[in-house]
Amino acid sequence: MSSPFIVIITTTSNKEDANKIAQTLLAKKLAGCVQVIGPISSHYYWKDELCQDEEWLCLIKSSQQHYQTLEKTIQEIHPYEVPEIISLPIQEGNQGYLSWLNQQLK
């Protein structure tokens, strides 16, 4: 059975920006939990150039109904020209955790 919850992924170039995103989303009750992981090594093409950068990964737990507002909020405070903001469905999960997550969201 599919749940209404999602994990949104975004990356930043430094821990301070990742923490700012986490704190903003939590304060606005758009996320129940944000894990900041890093540094990680990201490899990608940008403007026809192969890049390798150190980044910080944010794993944001939220719900599908909050996605549009959450994406807009991240874009408003994210320093990247084109930030990675992708959503993955939570197909199943510990019911106690999902209940807790639901209570954290507005």
UniProtKB/TrEMBL annotation:
Domain of life, source organism: Bacteria
Entries under SUPFAM superfamilies matching the protein: GlnB-like (SSF54913)
A GO term for molecular function: copper ion binding
Pfam annotation, one family: CutA1
Gene Ontology BP terms: response to metal ion
Family: Belongs to the CutA family.
Descriptive protein name: CutA1 divalent ion tolerance protein
Organism: Crocosphaera watsonii WH 8501
